[in-house]
């Protein structure tokens, strides 16, 4: 099964993708993580993307498409995967569909995390990352044992430049303006499902589990109907 997770920054897509990867064996491809790794490594794509990311702007389509398609093409055909943060525009989605159809790896379902601005700001302004291993923390919801220090490797934690309240609100405005048509695109294809990103992580995961099992149940019913009497 191939899944796309849609939703604004801070909607909880990454948390759910990690849980699905750990509990159900999905490969997790996070656009943000892959971009930041490219920035850290100083790759050509990283250098192009850096200026946009630091200003809280979305990285241009062509840069993201090139990076994500290279990642997806390395996936074995039988592997289930999650795309977290990609696509973000109809242009990206159409390009993705075209390339995945060639690989016989079409997207099966798209989950939209509908999330309020208040919750997004609360989550992102409190987010902290480890400067060495990249572990995620939150000053309220998931604080480290020692303030400012990573539990896993003992390195310092930091706040991303684009996690300030002003930048977050700008990111949300950009996101909303560019993704409305994308949501309509997937609705028209009949593969869009919606969950509330305002809920606690475990409640969202329970809803996702119910949604994701439906295609398997449908396929099982179809198989039964095809059996000869």
Give me some keywords for this one.
5-stranded parallel β-sheet; 8 strands; 52% helix; disordered C terminus; 229 residues; 14% strand; alpha/beta
Provide an overview of this structure:
The structure is a single chain. The protein contains eight helices and eight strands. The protein has 229 residues and is an alpha/beta fold. It has a single domain (2-120, 163-226), classed as Rossmann fold (3-Layer(aba) Sandwich). The strands form two sheets. A five-stranded parallel beta sheet has the order 2-3-1-4-8, sandwiched between helices. Strands 6-5-7 form a three-stranded antiparallel beta sheet. β5 (127-130) and β6 (136-138) form a beta hairpin. α2 (31-41) packs across α3, α4 (61-72) runs parallel beside α5 and α6 (117-125) crosses α7. The model is unreliable at 216-229 (pLDDT under 50).
Topology record:
Layout: E1 2-6, H1 13-24, E2 27-30, H2 31-41, H3 44-54, H4 61-72, E3 81-84, H5 90-103, E4 109-114, H6 117-125, E5 127-130, E6 136-138, E7 157-158, H7 165-189, E8 192-196, H8 201-226
Parallel strand pairs: 1-3, 1-4, 2-3, 4-8
Antiparallel strand pairs: 5-6, 5-7
Helix pairs in contact: 2-3, 4-5, 6-7
């Amino acid at each position: 099964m191939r899944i796309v997770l849609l939703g604004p920054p801070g909607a909880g897509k990454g948390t759910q993708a990690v849980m699905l990867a750990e509990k159900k064996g999905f490969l997790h491809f996070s656009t943000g993580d892959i971009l930041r790794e490219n920035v850290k490594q100083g790759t050509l794509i990283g250098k192009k993307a850096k200026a946009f990311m630091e200003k809280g702007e979305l990285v241009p389509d062509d840069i993201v498409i090139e990076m994500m398609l290279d990642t997806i093409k390395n996936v074995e055909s039988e592997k289930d995967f999650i795309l977290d943060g990609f696509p973000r525009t109809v242009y990206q989605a159409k390009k993705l569909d075209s390339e995945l159809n060639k690989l016989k790896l079409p997207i099966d379902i798209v989950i939209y995390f509908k999330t309020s601005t208040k919750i997004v700001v609360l989550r992102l302004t409190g987010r902290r990352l480890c400067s060495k291993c990249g572990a995620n923390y939150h000053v309220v919801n998931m604080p480290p044992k020692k303030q400012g220090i990573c539990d896993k490797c003992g390195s310092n934690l930091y706040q991303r430049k684009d996690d300030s309240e002003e930048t977050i609100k700008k990111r949300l405005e950009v996101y909303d303006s560019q993704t409305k048509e994308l949501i309509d695109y997937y609705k028209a294809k009949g593969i869009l499902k919606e969950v509330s990103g305002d809920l606690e992580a475990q409640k969202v995961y329970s809803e996702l589990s119910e949604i994701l099992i439906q295609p398997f149940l449908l396929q099982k019913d179809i198989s039964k109907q095809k059996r000869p009497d």
